[in-house]
Amino acid sequence: MSTATIATILLLGVFLVLVFLRVPVVYAIGVASLLDFFYLGINPMQMALKFVSNLNSYTLLAVPFFILMGELMSAGGITDTLIAFSKELVGWMHGGAAMVNVVASFFFGGISGSSSADCASLGPIEIKMMEEQGYDREFSTCLTMASSVEGILVPPSQNMVIFTLAAAGVTTVSIGQLFVAGYMPGAVLSIVLMIYSYYYSKKMNIPVTGKFNLKNCIKAFFKAIWGMLAVMFVVVGVIAGVFTTTESAAAAVVWSLCVGLFIYKGFSFKDIPHIFANVVETLGKVLILLGVSGAFTYLLTYLRIPTMIATGLFSITSNKIIILILLNILMLCLGCLIEMACLILMLTPVILPIWMQLGLSPIHLGIVMVLNLGIGLLTPPVGSTLFIGSAISGIKIETLSKKMVPFYITMFIALIILTYFPQTFMWLPNLLY
């Protein structure tokens, strides 16, 4: 075997073995990369340089601001106003509490950008609300977890920022276009979840409660709008070219701080150090992962692994439909085993060249990858949102995993729509850019 082949087996083999041994992914990447550097005779200083250069990005500055914005809004009491608005908007429908759950997650996703934050913040309120309307605890928890995936699709999302950074070695991806493209996939996922919830509500004879009241809906909207305006700072600012992504995120943080302190009054000045401590803890995990992935990505390119995979794939079939099925299966399977941010950094340089050879847009891949890996957050053995759902509901993970099957199927339908019918969401970025 050639040196490159042995180095490839060493890199991927050591990484996978360490992952299966439940070694934290960041250490698995670092150890596998370092061993490969030694084997190939590359100066280990190159690894340190790649670590630093991967963090030396102006766009990356947006990530801590997005995390801080989500923390400020969560602490500021935005959850109550969003649920109140969602109740007035869709609570009168058949299966009203389930509909409120889905819609509230759509709105909250634009603020937190995180599935875990959505489930942890809204989950206790939504599960209790659904049980009061007659839903069982298992269904309520499963819907809460499934709807939380909207949070990583609806902009602004730090995972989308990470995707643009990971794609930089292959092509330039506009973060503004990716943000705009995220709204329709979030809506598609919401719609399929609402359709299933409607079917389940009819089947279980869940009673209809309340009637639509336009006056109350408008009143609830104006209470919730203060928090949602933070999202408008980011999305509208970037689309209009008034701000860069980083500048708009910083402006949104200032707005969120003012809203939380003076309008919603969910926290005081003495709570701010604790909020910042949470941000630093989260950010530390993200940054060290970004750093070590720089060395890993360098080795993938050095060993021409993306080219090897593309050549092998196209030698099997040139059928676009089959190739897309295989790529989706790859992302779904790995998403069940490895953390989301890590997979975005690892898979993007590998899959993006293949995706572009099929004549498809990088924006399209960004959306499909985020949804694929978002489903992975709901699956054992490492699904963080699944663990949070189990913790807040008191239901065993094994039980929740079985009850999630109809939701997996529902989300696969959304994935198929977004994979094979990109025009359902690509029209919006094409219209605005």
From TrEMBL:
Residues 12-423 form the TRAP C4-dicarboxylate transport system permease DctM subunit domain. It comes from Faecalibacterium cf. prausnitzii KLE1255. Its main location: membrane. GO terms for cellular component: plasma membrane. Coiled coil: none annotated. This is TRAP transporter, DctM subunit. It is found in: Cell inner membrane. It is a multi-pass membrane protein. GO terms for molecular function: transmembrane transporter activity. InterPro entries: DctM (IPR010656), TRAP_DctM (IPR004681). Keywords: Cell inner membrane, Cell membrane, Membrane, Transmembrane, Transmembrane helix. The chain crosses the membrane at residues 47-68, 89-108, 178-199, 220-243, 249-267, 279-301, 321-347, 377-395, 407-428. It holds the Pfam family DctM.
